[in-house]
Structures are given as structure tokens and as C-alpha cells.
UniProtKB/TrEMBL annotation:
Keywords: ATP-binding, Nucleotide-binding. InterPro entries: AAA+_ATPase, ABC_transporter-like_ATP-bd, ABC_transporter-like_CS, ABC_transpr_LolD-like, P-loop_NTPase. One of its GO terms (molecular function) is ATP binding. It comes from the Bacteria. Residues 12-228 form the ABC transporter domain. This is Cell division ATP-binding protein FtsE. It holds the Pfam family ABC_tran. Part of the ABC transporter FtsEX involved in cellular division. Important for assembly or stability of the septal ring. GO terms for cellular component: plasma membrane. Belongs to the ABC transporter superfamily. The gene is ftsE. PROSITE patterns: ABC_TRANSPORTER_1, ABC_TRANSPORTER_2.
């Protein structure tokens, strides 16, 4: 399991968070604390608000109402100078991978560190390490379109963790994968949770969730939160 929750402060806090798209309410007064080192599943039907909540946490969207604090930073008041620091604390895994098709596996993963200004010698060391962990070393020079869906998601996972984030946010990371590939991704999430990384994952895959044997479940229905 991850770290002892009784000794940890919340790393993510949501206070009465709502999100409106014109007349549609996607999230309704969400109140949620996630502690450092937790493994949290967000479940619910399509359109329940799972992706919206995650997008707000990694600043792809902004909340219409309420306050969100991530790693001590209030997202409603965060300065442009602090934004890169926040993004380095978050690793995001997308369902559709979002890899750059004309860059190699190595280049896709290394880009995160290059943008952060990490030295080239250290970039190579870190990239090779995460590609080894994800089992993608042999594909280091391959382009994403030549990889299977499972392989592309492992590269996307490597990209998400290469900067050593405190939080991994995964939005339906196994949604387009076969069972074996999905299990590999879940096992990687568990491995990083064992290192103390906070995991927040939205997923429809109840079979894998029930067999992961860890984590807290949060259910969203029509934008409303239900703790399981």
C-alpha cells in the first residue's frame, strides 16, 4: 500500500467546486480531500464529470465556483511564475496518449525534461530509467504510429513520471487497451503509489479496479460526488 494516510496532510483539496458550461452543470459543489500517497479511483457513467474534475486539477479547465488547492497552491490565485512549478508536480496520463507522432519514444519522454531546463546528461539518465521501468527500452528509437496502443500508453506513462511528480492524474488510461495492456498500466500505477506518489485515476474498468486491491473509490453521478 501507499504511505500511512493517518500521517499525511491533504495534497489536493476541493471546496464547493462547481463547473458550468453555459446552462449545463458538469460538477456540483464538489468537496474532496486527497491525502499524500493515496490511491483514488473516480468512477461513474460517461458524462458524470470525471474528466472535467481531472482537467480542473491539471489546469486544462478552470472551476466556475469554489476553491482548489493542489500541493499548497490555490489554483484560482496561482501566479504565472508558479505555474511551471505546479505542472512539474503533476504527471498526466491521457486515454488518447497525446504523443508527438514524428518524434521518437526517447524524444517524447525527454521533452518534458528539456522544457524544464534539465541538463542533457541527466535527461538521458532519467529517460532511460523510466523506459526500463515501463518495458519500452527496446522501442527507444521507434515512432509512436509504429507502436501498439499498449506500447503507446506505456510511453505516455513514462513521459508522465519522468519528472518525478508528486501526483499522477490518469484519465481513463486503459479505456482503449486490451486486458493485458490495461493490467500493465495499472501495475505501473501501483508501483509508483508504493513509492509514495499520489494517484488519482478516472476509470470505467471495474474488473481491474476490483482486482487492484487498494485505493479509495469516489463515484460521480450527474456531477455530484458520492464516496464509496
Amino acid at each position: 500500500m501507499g504511505k500511512d494516510m493517518n500521517k499525511q496532510e491533504p495534497i489536493i483539496r476541493c471546496f464547493n467546486v462547481s463547473k458550468w458550461y453555459e446552462n449545463l452543470c458538469a460538477l456540483k459543489k464538489i468537496n474532496l480531500d486527497i491525502c499524500t500517497g493515496e490511491f483514488v479511483f473516480i468512477t461513474g457513467p460517461s458524462g458524470a464529470g470525471k474528466s472535467t474534475l481531472l482537467k480542473i486539477l491539471y489546469l486544462d479547465e478552470t472551476a466556475s465556483e469554489g476553491q482548489i488547492v493542489v500541493d499548497g497552491m490555490n489554483l484560482a490565485r496561482i501566479s504565472k511564475a508558479r505555474m511551471p512549478y505546479l505542472r512539474r508536480r503533476l504527471g498526466v496520463v491521457f486515454q488518447d496518449f497525446k504523443l508527438i507522432p514524428n518524434r521518437t519514444v526517447y524524444e517524447n519522454v525527454a521533452l518534458v525534461l528539456e522544457v524544464a531546463g534539465v541538463k542533457k546528461s541527466l535527461i538521458r539518465q532519467k529517460v532511460l530509467q523510466v523506459l526500463r521501468i515501463t518495458g519500452m527500452t527496446r522501442k527507444i528509437h521507434a515512432l509512436p504510429p509504429t507502436l501498439s496502443g499498449g506500447e503507446q500508453q506505456r510511453v505516455a506513462f513514462a513521459r508522465a513520471v519522468v519528472g518525478e511528480p508528486a501526483i499522477i492524474i490518469a484519465d481513463e488510461p486503459t479505456g482503449s487497451l486490451d486486458h493485458d495492456s490495461a493490467r500493465i498500466i495499472f501495475n505501473l500505477l501501483v508501483k509508483y503509489n508504493d513509492k509514495g506518489v499520489t494517484i488519482l485515476i478516472a476509470s470505467h474498468n471495474l474488473h481491474l479496479i476490483n482486482n487492484t486491491n487498494r485505493g479509495r473509490h469516489i463515484h460521480l453521478t450527474n456531477g455530484e460526488l458520492q464516496l464509496m
